[in-house]
Amino acid sequence: MSFEIAVLPGDGIGPEVTAAAVAVLKAIGRKHGHAFRFSTHLMGGAAIDATGEPLPAATLDACRRADAILLGAVGGPKWSDPSAKVRPEQGLLALRQELGLYANLRPVRPHPVAMGASPVKPHLLAGVDLLVVRELTGGLYFGEKKRQADRASDLCEYTVHEIERGLRRGFGFARARRGRLASVDKANVLETSRLWRETAIRLGRDEFPDVALEHHLVDSMAMYLISRPRDFDVVVTENLFGDILTDEASLLAGSLGLLPSASLGDGPRGLYEPIHGSAPDIAGRGIANPYATILSAALLLRHSLGLEAEALEIELAVSAALDAGVLTADLAAPGQSVSTQAAADAVLERITQHCQVAELRD
Ligand code: NAD
Ligand code: IPM
Ligand code: MN
């Protein structure tokens, strides 16, 4: 099979971690006889520097033509002046909106070796397996923004249609997993959250009576994620809450450098990126953790290309590399860390040693 993959390395550690994920995809393609055709495009701060725009038309066109898009990260201090007219992050938001990618999946499944890097006690982490479904193209991110010298506002707006389609993805994944959905809102304060909760109750009753639905306010959910993470299966929430809760949830897995994401719309095309940012504090040193981006490439194979076995093979190879203690600085004990390249190589080795992969299955 032949597939077009658009690669947007972006800024900071983006180019370092996407290079690792592309190498893994190439190895999987060679091994299974898939022709993955890669094209690389400007995005974010790098695109602002080259063209003045964070999402140039040529990049958007290439993404529309592609079967799937792999993105590193955008942003950094160079473009972070609060008074700047153009920002790298605007490009990412525009891409998500232009492609109608309203459902952002962020799975969290701590690996025993990486748990050691988590500030959460190990007995709370065993058996944690949750999927956060974050609504991605509505809410505060996309409402009207106003700014005067002495005041500013961001409008938080949601339509029933936007809420329904996000929630349906949450219910659908819950049905396919352990049948439990936690819907997170701030219905004690926000009108948008009351609409969200009403809609969740209605969909649960009318379309998903087999899914056990519970509701949590976002502030207590932030606490429950740490105090009893095992109690959750699928968590569905609005855009900003999902952004914040998943950086928090990354600590269950041990590091922000381990969490992948898939951004999906109604069709097969998706955008795949680690949940972390451009990590300016470590960029250019070859020490970033590439596993989140490699795991995002696995989600790309699963959700956009329909290559489930190949996706699983990548996930098992990352898991085996972790088992072997191949850890970047965010996870390793002092003096024990390996480079981005060495971590990527450990995954590649396990993919090319065909026979061992099956044995690594738990
Ligand atoms: P960040 O996620 O870039 O970094 C937070 C911390 O986590 C840093 O200490 C960083 O070194 C560490 N970290 C992140 N990824 C890592 C990895 N793969 N390996 C090892 N350590 C890792 O968040 P920030 O510093 O708040 O934001 C920096 C820039 O990134 C901002 O401009 C922000 O807007 C942008 N950002 C972009 C995306 C994206 O492109 N999807 C996501 C989040 C933040
Ligand atoms: C993420 C990032 C983005 C978001 C920023 C960079 C716009 O934090 O993908 O989690 O807030 O969605
Ligand atoms: Mn974020």
Overview of the molecule:
- With 362 residues, the protein is of the alpha/beta class.
- The chain folds into two domains: 198 residues, Isopropylmalate Dehydrogenase; 135 residues, Isopropylmalate Dehydrogenase, CATH 3.40.718.10.
- The chain is 44% helix and 19% strand.
- It has 14 helices and twelve strands.
- It has a ten-stranded mixed beta sheet, sandwiched between helices. The protein has a two-stranded antiparallel sheet with strand order 6-7.
- It binds nicotinamide-adenine-dinucleotide, 3-isopropylmalic acid (IPM) and manganese (II) ion.
- 3-isopropylmalic acid (IPM) binds next to helix 4.
List its traits.
single chain; 362 residues; alpha/beta; Isopropylmalate Dehydrogenase; 2 domains; 10-stranded mixed beta sheet; two-stranded antiparallel sheet; 14 helices; 12 strands; globular; disordered C terminus; binds nicotinamide-adenine-dinucleotide; binds 3-isopropylmalic acid; binds manganese (II) ion
Topology readout:
Blueprint: E1 2-10, H1 14-32, E2 35-40, H2 45-51, H3 57-65, E3 68-73, H4 88-98, E4 103-108, H5 112-115, H6 122-125, E5 130-135, E6 145-148, E7 151-154, H7 160-176, E8 180-185, H8 191-206, E9 212-217, H9 218-227, E10 234-237, H10 239-253, E11 260-264, E12 270-274, H11 291-303, H12 308-323, H13 340-352, H14 354-359
Parallel strand pairs: 1-2, 1-3, 3-12, 5-10, 8-9, 8-10
Antiparallel strand pairs: 4-5, 4-11, 6-7, 11-12
The structure holds nicotinamide-adenine-dinucleotide (NAD), 3-isopropylmalic acid and manganese (II) ion (MN).
Residues 13, 17, 73-76, 80, 89, 92, 256-257, 273, 276-282, 288-289, 292, 330 line the site of nicotinamide-adenine-dinucleotide (NAD).
